[in-house]
Amino acid sequence: MNKLRFYIFNLMPYPHIPPAAEIESTWVSLSNKHYDPHRGRVLYNEYIDQLAGAETFGYDGVAVNEHHANFYGTMPSPNIIAAMLVQRTEHIPIGVIGNAIPLHGNPLRVAEEIAMLDVISGGRIISGFVRGIGCEYFNNGVTPADSVERFNEAHDLIIKAWTDDGPFTWQGDHFYIPNVNPIPRPIQDPHPPIWIPGQGSLETLQFIAKHKYTYMMVFAPLWFTKMAFDGLREECKRLGYDAPKSMFNACVPTYVAETDEQAHREAKAHLSWVFNTGLKIPDQFFFPPGYMSTKSFRNFVGLLKQGKVKPQADLTYDELVADRYIIVGSPETVKNELGNYCDEVGAGGIIGGGAPFGPMPNWMAMKNMQIFAEEVIPEFREADGLPDYQRVAANSPRSYAELAALKGRPPETARSLVTGGGDTLVEHRLSHLPEVIDSTMGSEDDVRPASAG
Amino acid sequence: MSYIDVVEKIDVPKPPKYYTEPRFEEVMGLPVAYRREGSGEATVLFHGAGFTRMWIPFYAMLAEKLDFITPESPGFGETPMPAWVRSFDDLTILYDQLFDQLGIEKIHLIGFSMGGWAASEFAAYYPRRLKSLSLITPVGLRVDDDPGVDIFQLTPADLMDRLFKDKEVMTQWLPDDDDFDEGIHMYSEFSAAARLMWAPRYNLALERRLQRLTCPTQVIGAEEDRLVPNAMSDKFAAVLPNCKLTRLAGTGHEPLLERPRELADTLIAFIKEASK
């Protein structure tokens, strides 16, 4: 197994908006009149090219996520982008990290879409679940006060829909579904791996430990990520198991160039934009009432008041680098920094290493991806340079021949009664053969003209 | 979720001015905080989303002439928020039970702002309990073409600015920004409001249901309400049978704090008349 896995992630920002100082926020209140769909088209296609390129560059996976009514991440439906990536790539895992399951009227929609993606991709989907950030409750008729309950119930419903044979009835507090019977079912058994992105709240860590899911820490300083990871390890221990390194993914935007100076020169404005402009979110948007329990809110505001965490919009570039929200430098520097980072926090995966961020132009994003792939990734790989997913068999046969060899014919191959054929079931596989179909054709008198004229 | 869950009393910060110890009545497993002073016609006020835990001068003025009772809604003041409170229906049942337990049969009901919505729901379900209904800058109906501002998007400073027309009065009620516990408590109260009112911000059925009222009704609107459009009071006045609409000079959304004397006099006169 490789020392570290690298996932390319693209938030898909729309950066052509007024500068941070001139706007209240990039979320909720900034009018969509600033969105020019013609420019949006170019951006979307560049972003999709970058993600699809990750397979050729040799990354371990690609990841997309869901955000609403903002310019920081313009992917209100991540499953749509994932569907394109399924078609643009062949073997690389694709993470939807994640769908905001409390926000939607019927969680089965997510169960269905992820199952579709998993089937079409041959079992390459990682399914993340999130609550959606506070801002996203303003463009929704779901009260943030129900967010945690709806998340938990939607999760239980989706997992049951994937794992239990349908149909069954769901009688929840928030969702009632008389007939749960999603078709298709996912390829991966019992279901696609579940990732839970989070900000380190105790409730989230306990949820992950209980289900043995994979944790993904969102942007944070190293000390905070370490605190969250340690907390998760402790929760797992409390439940009687040692959490494997693969359970821990850190989100660390990483930019690499020929020299340290050149890397900072190229990355500075764009990575700063992510935090200072993209995440310019005033408290009243970030914490709508009820989104956090009063206890969690007290803890978080306490940290803010003590100056232990700073609003991301106020972080200087030097602070981003010093606190290791981000890693920037020459290949040598980045290799060392990443190695130390992962040793310190105990991470098995990095989201956003070598990935595009902010208003970075396409050429620069590609440059970063290529240098990162050629000069950083091999340091964390075994001698063959392969991503781990290439060391194991695919989750699904890759060809007709392989499928036929492994599975033979379907147990219920398509058969039906055909008019004129009596009570003999006709096997559709053979139904065009004269000895099967001719006896059902009737006399010439019975045959109607092909066209009624 | 069940009506027999027993909810523990909670510790809440005590505002520096006008705080008084409430009494508690356990209703359906929930310790409901309430304050009751005075004698005369039993008169109940449902509060708005804020300024809880205090015996404000306006309450004292009503208690001089009336048997004045004001309960704290679940999640507000010292009444905890149980998991089973999901809607104004739950409040309606809770209050009906509370009045039974307090031995009050008929009441004059006053509802302010969010409490105006709660009072309207109560009135629609239990019209025979009411001797009169008074709504002060209420919310709860749909005002076509004017949804008003989203209170949940406002900063505390913006909210205060929009609550008051009289800025001199406002400065007396500004929260202390350094009061950490009070800040957390306000988030907690707004969380309760978000459970009741996030979406939709109205109950369309009220327009029809309120028409069955036979008791005297009145709406007291602001001179210039910058939180809830004045058209909301107009609409309530149009929907309520035989309704009298008053607009108090010099007031914004908070007449209880801005013009307590005038407001109390208006209410007492109306209740006296309705009691004849």
Approximate strand percentage of chain A:
5-15%
Strand order of the largest sheet of chain B: 1-2-4-3-5-6-7-8
Helix/strand-derived category of chain A reads alpha/beta
Residues in helices of chain A, as a percent range? 25-40%
The run of helices and strands of chain A is EHEHEHEHEEEHEHEHHHHEHEHHEEH
Strand order of the largest sheet of chain A: 1-2-3-4-7-8-9-11
Short note summarizing the structure:
The complex is a heterodimer of chains A (453) and B (276). Helix content of chain A is 38%, strand content 13%.
Which SSEs are present, and which pair or pack?
The complex is a heterodimer of chains A (453) and B (276).
Chain A: E1 5-9, H1 37-57, E2 61-64, H2 78-88, E3 94-100, H3 108-121, E4 125-130, H4 147-163, E5 168-171, E6 176-180, E7 194-198, H5 202-211, E8 214-217, H6 222-238, E9 248-256, H7 260-278, H8 283-286, H9 294-305, H10 317-322, E10 327-329, H11 331-345, E11 349-353, H12 362-376, H13 400-407, E12 415-416, E13 426-427, H14 434-437
Parallel strand pairs in A: 1-2, 1-11, 2-3, 3-4, 4-7, 7-8, 8-9, 9-10, 9-11
Antiparallel strand pairs in A: 5-6, 12-13
Helix pairs in contact in A: 1-12, 2-3, 3-4, 5-6, 11-12
Chain B: E1 23-27, E2 30-37, E3 42-46, H1 57-65, E4 67-71, H2 88-102, E5 107-112, H3 114-125, E6 130-136, H4 156-163, H5 167-173, H6 180-197, H7 205-209, E7 217-222, H8 230-239, E8 243-248, H9 255-258, H10 260-274
Parallel strand pairs in B: 3-4, 3-5, 5-6, 6-7, 7-8
Antiparallel strand pairs in B: 1-2, 2-4
Helix pairs in contact in B: 1-10, 2-3
